[in-house]
Every structure is written in C-alpha cells, then in structure tokens.
C-alpha cells in the first residue's frame, strides 16, 4: 500500500467504495462553490517529500488557496498586529471584518463532506457560525443591543439585499426566459420566518398593552425564554423535515458538466483540525469586532445600529451572498432562494433563540423584544418577500422592490437612533455622541 493510500485511509477516504465521501449538494454548498478554484493538487506537489510536508501543502492549497477570496486572509494577521500594538481601533474593526469573509466561506466548505459526521446536518447548523460567535462574545460582554442588531441585520440582508439582488440580476440576465423556482421549499421557509416574527412581536405587543415596570420586564423575559424553547424545537423539526422526510425539496442539482461525483480532498481528521483552528480565529476576530464597534461608530459618526444591522452582515457573509447572485445569473433561482431564505430562517429560529438560552445560562437578560421600528422592519420585510414569492415565478421588478425596501430601511437606521436600550452599548452619554439627528 502506497503512502498516498495510507494517508487517504487515515482521513477516511477510500477509493472505489460506496462509502466514498461526497460533497453534499445543498443550496449553501453550491453557492459557496461558485467562488472556489478548481483544485490542481498535482501541480508542484508530486515530488514533495517527506509525506507529512506533502499532506500539509495539499491541505493548505485546498483549504486556504481554494477560494477566490483567499487574499482577504491577509487581513487576519494585520488585525492581530493592529490589536497587539494598539493601532487605531476603527482599523482593527475593518481588518477583522475583512478577515471574517473568507473564514465564513471556508467553514461552510469544511462541513460539506458527508463522512464528516453527517455533513448535511453540520452544514445546516454551521452555516451561520460567524453570526453566532459574534453574538456570544457580545452577550458575554453584556452588549445586548449589538446581539439584537447584528442578528436582525443578518435576517434583513438575506431577505432583502441578497434575495433582491439575486432576483434583479437574474431577471436582467434572463429577460428572454421565464424564471421559475420551487415554491414548496420557499413556502416552508416563509412559514418559519412568520413564526419567528410572531415570537419577536409578542414581547412588543405585551409592552404596549401592559404596564411598564420591573414585573413587566420579568414577564417579557420569561415569555422570550419560553418562545425561544419553542423556536428551537421548531428548528429541530425543520432539520428533520429538511434532511430526512422531505430532503428532495432542498437538494439542488448542478449542470451536467458538474454532476460528476466530487470527491472530498480534505478528509475527516484534517477537516476537523482545520475547522477547530478556523473557529478559534473567528472567535478572536469576533472579540475584536465587538470590542471596537463603538470606537468605530464614534470615529466615523455612524450609529452602532447601522454598523451592526447593515455593515456586519454584508461583509461577514459576502462570499455566500456573491455565490447566490452568481447562480441567479445562471437562472438557478432555487439555489439563490435556498441561500437567502435558508440563512434568514436559520438565524430567526435557531441563532436568535439560542442566544436567548445562552444569555439565560450566563445570567444576561437577553430577550426577544425589539423596538417598534425594528419589529416593523422585520415584519414588513417578511410580508414583502412572501408576496414576491407567492406565484413561483420571478422577474427583475420583484428584485428591484426588495432592494428598494432594503435601501429605505438602511437609510432609516442611518439617520435615526434606535430607542432600544442604548445604555447597553457603552454606558450613559453614548446616545449624544453617536449618530445623526433626526431633527
């Protein structure tokens, strides 16, 4: 048995076996794959000795250099150096954001192999790992509003920006063709998003109808925790529905030239090591972002709500979003909708309630309550998307309307200060130092 065969067996890769690892063809994996380079492992590596060095180089080439946005990895050491030597904190914020973009795409890549502990489940639950890690660090520092802002922004950007841009670009690129998509999976996601909206709206409605005070706050917190448990149960049901009973609704197919089985070059052991390492780096950059977002807000004169709701989601998931738009150009709307709606659904019914439970464990009063402005933006966004997708067809005007809605909401958060617990951000006096006046 050759050295290569030994290495393949160690990593769980067997040739000519029915158990050969394959990449799971979901909407998320296919959208990320559009930004990957074709692996050319033979170039320059055949004559490398010893075997350990060859393994390292192959893994480095596949994991680090295997994406078209690999130059953004350079932002990571610059962010660490800037933090270590006390450079301008806004620069640390920007460099950390840029470094998160390739890391988020690579985490998605590493969780696609089926042999890697049921890759479909991992890909579904790790698809928004970046948002979850940032939220946990913000919770640990008791910056509750940063958590709410960033997660709300992720939902809005997926529903309006990503989906809107995909429908607009796909419609303009395919004017002579009728663009259609499978309504079944879209309907499931819209239903779950509506459930998430209900759980966010109930605390606000109870605030408006009840008496303010300590007892009301404790009741809202209790309601949020109970609703979060229900949402987590709904998410587990959704995973069973997506990965087991109705899997055919969510599986995506590529063109014939890409239909050949794609072997997983990175095996179980290497994938696990890379995933752990990248998670640590994501956690480090997330800590930098949470610690510097207020300084960046003060320096630039931009509200934290705008940075968290608009900027963080756009940069953090840029690779996945770009992939969705690319597939819309190719008239593959099912993949684009799977990315946009799937990510929004996952954040709404998994990441948000999980943060409430984590806050419960950390004794942080994280709840589902949003301001009237934030709740209204979320509710209307879900309603607009539901109307846009109700007939199973698309044209560029639908995408344009979604984009217009996102632009209006972005401007709203730029010029208005959200009234939600601004004291949680940076203590008293923060309101007067940041943001534009609405007067």
Number of strands: 2
Low-pLDDT segments, ≥5 res: 9-24, 39-43, 114-120, 254-261, 420-439
| Strand order in space, largest sheet | 1-2
Structure class: mainly alpha
Order of helices and strands: HHHHHHHHEHHHHHHHEHHH
What is the beta-strand fraction? under 5%
- Global geometry: globular
Please summarize the sheet with the most strands. 2 strands, antiparallel
Summarize model confidence as the mean pLDDT: 77
Residue share in helices? 55-70%
Q: State the end-to-end distance.
A: 76 Å
Rounded to an integer, what's the Rg over CA atoms? 22 Å
Number of helical regions: 18
Task: Provide a descriptive summary of the structure in words.
The chain has 439 residues and is mainly alpha-helical. Helices cover 69% and strands 1% of the residues. It has a two-stranded antiparallel sheet. α9 runs antiparallel to α15. The protein starts with a helix and ends in a 6-residue tail after the last helix. The model is unreliable at 9-24, 39-43, 114-120, 254-261 and 420-439 (pLDDT under 50).
